Fold:
Amino acid sequence: MKHLTPLTLLACGSFNPITNMHMRLFEVARDHLHQTGKYRVIGGIISPVSDDYGKQGLVEARHRIAMAQLALETSDWIRVDRWESEQRQWSETVIVLRHHYKELLKSHRIRKLPRENNWPIEKAAGASSLTVVPELKLLCGADFLKTFQTPNLWKEEHILEIVGKFGLVCISRAGSDPSQCISQTALLSRYQHNIHLVREWIQNEISATNIRHALRKEQSVKYLVPDSVISYIKQYNIYTDMSEQKNEGNLLQPLKQYRPVVSPLND
Structure:
């Protein structure tokens, strides 16, 4: 086990609310990475987005954090992290990755050396030579890859850093073909060696959007989300018609920030 690369999985998103499917992604990804014979998964991080993201129906981060903590009480390796959700402004995914990678290096007493190939290399504190350093990879569903093709949603340099430096673990389901998205995107094709495509053969179509819809109609969502989360939702009456109207008509923060600036015509 000593020669295996320690690896942490990071999932970013709304988690509005967290579902059994969100947690299932971590388990499927860990199995796959262990089966490669190259990695030892040492942890998983769920990082709920901040309230400033602007997505319709996004309830307050304090509730999304609390529900995620309740859901993960039965996990001995996945945890919830508040850092992203506590930022006053929306944090780009690459910023969140940088933050957690910095924390990961601290926990392994790794220090940065001068840059090589545009990214810093790392060395264990007190070591005379380079050592196996921990990796951090972004965990996502198959639909995530398609967002890279959405105009004004991502900066190209951020996609480069995410797939080039960190890497992706993408969980797909029967009927989806993320490899096609990779082949259609030059940047993803260039770094496809750093994108792990993992097939989940057990059908699971749980959607947080559909969960919220069912809750507003007072329908049961038992076995779709943990019982502790259901109790929390009922206690605080979180998902209502009013909550779903929050941010209605608003643009997501990345679309606001990355859309082209149109210069006025000269007189």
User: Anything to note?
Assistant: The two ends are 70 Å apart (CA to CA). The longest strand covers residues 39-48. The CA atoms of residues 148 and 154 lie 6 Å apart.
